[in-house]
Amino acid sequence: MVSRTVAKDIITLRGSAAIVSEFFGYAANSILYNRGVYPEESFVKVKKYGLPMLLTQDDGVKSFISNLNAQLSEWLEAGKLQRVVLVIMSKATGEVLERWNFSIETDNEVVEKGVSREKSDKEIMREIQAIMRQIASSITYLPCLDEPCVFDVLAYTDKDVAVPFTWIESDAKLIANPQMVKLHSFDTKIHKVDTLVSYKNDDEWEEQ
Amino acid sequence: MILRTPPPKKRRGEAIAAESPPPPSDRRLVIYDHNPPPVPPDSSDQFLCTYQCRQMVKADFVDALTTAEKQLHDYQSKLEALNQNLSKAEAESKKFRDQFLYTEQELVAAKRREQVLQEQLLKELNDSQQRFRKQLQSYNELEDLVPITRRMDHQPTKLIGFCMFHYIFQLKLQNEMNLREKAESSAESADGKATLLERKLSQLSESIEREKRHLSDELAQTKSESKLSISRINADLERMKCKAKNAEEESELLKEQLEGVMKQFNECLHQKSEVEKKLSSFTLQDVTPTENNPLIKHLQEELRNYESEVQEARKLKSSHENIELLKEKLLEEKGRKERAELQLSKLQELQLSLNNLENELSSWKLMMKDIPGVSCHEDIPVKFATLQKEVIDSTMKMGEANARLKQMEVSLDLAQLGKQNAEAEAALAKEKAEVLKSEIKRIELMLSMVTDERDKFRSIINELKKPKNEEMTDEAANMTIVQELELSLVNKEFVIKELENSLCQQKELNDRQHNEIRLLNERLNDETRRIKSLEREGDRLCSEISLLESKLGHGDFSSANTKVLRMVNTLALGNDAKQTIEALQTELQKTKERLQAVEELKSQSGDTGKLVDSYISEKILKLKEQIATLEKREERVLTCISLSTQQANNYTSQPEISRQIEIFIRKMNSIPAFTANLTVESFNRRTLS
């Protein structure tokens, strides 16, 4: 009888931070496309995680997301990042309509001692693929965003983190009485990312 | 904050319907004058210029369309040629296939003929061999007969006959040998021909296969090329459409500009009329004939000439505009007609799709009736949402129940292990008790045996003690025996005592083990109670976890450990700044044009009226001031854009800007001061340099 052995790859702190920040970039693009924050024609299809992913071609949004990813990977390598939240707000009223919450648990032993972990790249890709599919299918239960919307990104960091030049302190932009849907999570053995989407209650939508 | 793309553009029909001039936007600088300067007659060139630009754009678009159509025709002709080549190649391949089949048939026929020939040859050979054998037999018989005939000399005729027969037989043999050789040679030649034919066949088949592959490759290439060309043509068509839309929008913008300019022109005319009135009033007031009268008359004549020219220009312009409007209307009508024709063709498709959609709708409605709790289509998403929520809740509950189950299983396993351990210990204790009991029994048996022996010995001693007289001589020996027996008795008693002590010890051990078993049972009960309490704690923790998860999802955080940061993005600033720059630039151009017109007027009018000169100079000064302010605003906005679009790292690499960042932002912690300093420096550089 032949037994299958799963090939495991060594993952370092830097590699894990790169995986997580890249995931966030693609997830943000997918959310912006699926929620209609930007028009469909401004997105282009690329292959990633074994799926056709959509990336924006708007220069401003591209540079914004790339700068964001660079900062997030820096905080991830330092083990200072606790959460990343993508907030979708109404352009006219500024009301928060949706919050895409990505919670991050870091293995502090890796940050302090610099050890590495083992996990198959394919396994990680499979987990990320499941999350991307769930994001794409979220339009079936999330309420339609009929009005023009804008988006913003919040980062929950440790208290002792130095605020970079292009960042400012902000409120949490919460939703009152939200509906929440928990999505899948993925784990690189160094960073574990849980995804959750909270949106404005359907009853409040109907009242409005 | 990230802005969405700009709002949807206005439709052309709405723009045409709203012929009234639009109000000035907030971003434009509108200079309201009560006495505007007169418009020179050359201003109509400005209107012509925009029309020519529009015409040029249209001409370019038409040229591009014609080139695209030509390309389309070329591609179509190429496609047709390729199709013809394909059909030719297919016909040739069919011919080759027919030839190949024909050659195959010929081969088969030749092979069959060869087989038939070989069979005939074989038959002939066999027949000849049989004849040869018969002849040989007859020859042998004849040879046998020869000695007899030799004796019989009187029969020479038979000998001669026999020789003749032999000669004939040899001739026949030779003939048959020759025939056989011929047949073999013909068979060899037929084999050679067959091999040649086979070689030719193989070559033909290879060539046919090569040609087939070549033709299929060419077919695939032509198909891909045709697809590419079709996609290119479609892309070009879309580009043309976009260009046409852009041209339409530009035409609308130009129209709006035209209307604005027309307004200004009217205002200038009004101002000019007022100036004329004033001039005329001035001329009426001056009663005494002075040196200015002929000048004034001259000026008045010139003014009248200008007015006439302006009126003629107006008429020409209006006629031009009417012509252009009519042309545009013609083009629009043509375009509408074409669009209507296209849409008519699409109508049928739409009707088909409509029918399909109606069928689908009816099927969906029928399906909806089957779904409980759904009365109309609006209920479906709600139903889906409720079902999904229920699913999510049930999965959460399932997860919680599974977690509880696992915990209970773990505790059960632990309890079972403890129970098994206790049972094992109890069994060990029981075994030890039984072993001890058996030892006790054995010891009691021994005791009974020993007491029996003792009684026996005592009886023996008593029996021995009674006949004293008879056995006086053996008294000493008996005494020794008795002493020995007493010693053994004492030893036995000692052994019995030791056994009794060991019995007591075993009993004590048994009691201790019983106590231990009782303690273990009590511990078991305590463990089960602890397990139950742990289960309750587990349920409570699960509920707390769900609460915390809900809080996490809600976004709460503890300010002691975390802080929320937001990235500042400058996209909105950039877009707004670009729009303000464009508006400012247009305003700048307009004011410059007005300045030029005023200066031209001034040069033409010359010394007519010091009031007019002073007024015009004042206007010029005002316009220059406005131009300067607009330029300053433009510079500030440009510097803001350059600041916002460049990345922070590039900025910090520059020494001057990094110094400013350190001073204004890190020390003073104020971004407005930093931007203000940058604008001042850039303005100074541009103005002083």
UniProtKB/TrEMBL annotation, chain A:
<comment type="function">
    <text>Required for the execution of the mitotic checkpoint which monitors the process of kinetochore-spindle attachment and delays the onset of anaphase when this process is not complete. It inhibits the activity of the anaphase promoting complex by sequestering CDC20 until all chromosomes are aligned at the metaphase plate.</text>
</comment>
<dbReference type="GO" id="GO:0005737">
    <property type="term" value="C:cytoplasm"/>
</dbReference>
<keyword id="KW-0539">Nucleus</keyword>
<dbReference type="Pfam" id="PF02301">
    <property type="entry name" value="HORMA"/>
</dbReference>
<keyword id="KW-0131">Cell cycle</keyword>
<dbReference type="InterPro" id="IPR003511">
    <property type="entry name" value="HORMA_dom"/>
</dbReference>
<dbReference type="InterPro" id="IPR036570">
    <property type="entry name" value="HORMA_dom_sf"/>
</dbReference>
<keyword id="KW-0132">Cell division</keyword>
<keyword id="KW-0498">Mitosis</keyword>
<feature type="domain" description="HORMA">
    <location>
        <begin position="14"/>
        <end position="197"/>
    </location>
</feature>
<dbReference type="GO" id="GO:0051301">
    <property type="term" value="P:cell division"/>
</dbReference>
<dbReference type="GO" id="GO:0005654">
    <property type="term" value="C:nucleoplasm"/>
</dbReference>
<dbReference type="InterPro" id="IPR045091">
    <property type="entry name" value="Mad2-like"/>
</dbReference>
<dbReference type="GO" id="GO:0000776">
    <property type="term" value="C:kinetochore"/>
</dbReference>
<comment type="similarity">
    <text>Belongs to the MAD2 family.</text>
</comment>
<dbReference type="GO" id="GO:0007094">
    <property type="term" value="P:mitotic spindle assembly checkpoint signaling"/>
</dbReference>
<protein>
    <recommendedName>
        <fullName>Mitotic spindle checkpoint protein MAD2</fullName>
    </recommendedName>
</protein>
From TrEMBL, chain B:
<dbReference type="GO" id="GO:0000776">
    <property type="term" value="C:kinetochore"/>
</dbReference>
<feature type="coiled-coil region">
    <location>
        <begin position="405"/>
        <end position="446"/>
    </location>
</feature>
<feature type="coiled-coil region">
    <location>
        <begin position="482"/>
        <end position="601"/>
    </location>
</feature>
<dbReference type="Pfam" id="PF05557">
    <property type="entry name" value="MAD"/>
</dbReference>
<keyword id="KW-0175">Coiled coil</keyword>
<keyword id="KW-0132">Cell division</keyword>
<dbReference type="GO" id="GO:0007094">
    <property type="term" value="P:mitotic spindle assembly checkpoint signaling"/>
</dbReference>
<feature type="coiled-coil region">
    <location>
        <begin position="194"/>
        <end position="264"/>
    </location>
</feature>
<dbReference type="InterPro" id="IPR008672">
    <property type="entry name" value="Mad1"/>
</dbReference>
<keyword id="KW-0539">Nucleus</keyword>
<dbReference type="GO" id="GO:0051315">
    <property type="term" value="P:attachment of mitotic spindle microtubules to kinetochore"/>
</dbReference>
<protein>
    <recommendedName>
        <fullName>Mitotic spindle assembly checkpoint protein MAD1</fullName>
    </recommendedName>
</protein>
<feature type="coiled-coil region">
    <location>
        <begin position="296"/>
        <end position="367"/>
    </location>
</feature>
<feature type="coiled-coil region">
    <location>
        <begin position="65"/>
        <end position="142"/>
    </location>
</feature>
<keyword id="KW-0498">Mitosis</keyword>
<dbReference type="GO" id="GO:0072686">
    <property type="term" value="C:mitotic spindle"/>
</dbReference>
<dbReference type="GO" id="GO:0005635">
    <property type="term" value="C:nuclear envelope"/>
</dbReference>
<keyword id="KW-0131">Cell cycle</keyword>
<feature type="region of interest" description="Disordered">
    <location>
        <begin position="1"/>
        <end position="36"/>
    </location>
</feature>
<dbReference type="GO" id="GO:0051301">
    <property type="term" value="P:cell division"/>
</dbReference>
<comment type="similarity">
    <text>Belongs to the MAD1 family.</text>
</comment>
